[in-house]
Amino acid sequence: MKAINYFLTLLLIFTCFYDGQSQDQAIDYRLSWTHSVHLGDTVSIVVTVDISDGYYIYPPGYFDESGGAPTQLLFTSQKNNHLELIGTSKMFDATGHEIANRATGKGIKVIQLFKYQSESKKNHLVIEGDFTYQLCNEEFCHAPVSEPLTCKVLLRSKKENKKQPLKTKKT
Questions:
Q1: In the list 17, 18, 50, 73, which could disulfide-bond 89, CB 3.0-4.6 Å?
Q2: What is the pTM of this model?
Q3: What value does the mean pLDDT take over residues 82-90?
């Protein structure tokens, strides 16, 4: 009977240790991001991404034959229709160089520009969409993740907007 209790105790300790290792590894799979709005002659939505060591994401518009999905900023609503997309989103590293292949590390920026009509009667805009990314390492890619993104913008004259402070939200 003592042998069975001893074996079960060892099995329980091993199971707890193994489960703890799995939880630690799950933390490595995460990335964190924040977004901000910059106002001037255009409205810039900037998503800043920090990726755990050993992992990467692909930039917007990137095609990978092995199946990796590109990072995307998809805007579903520009309430009040006073905004117009300018081109597609771009990805930059922490030093400001555009990323063409894989993005790794901290301080990665995904930027989407909009034109706006400052003469419009409405001065509050809400921009809604999704930030979609697929986190990969050298062995596999996780399923793509899509997280909601909402930006509230107070429009003034373009001259006044250049003085408006940066708005930031953590996610």
A1: 73
A2: 0.72
A3: 87
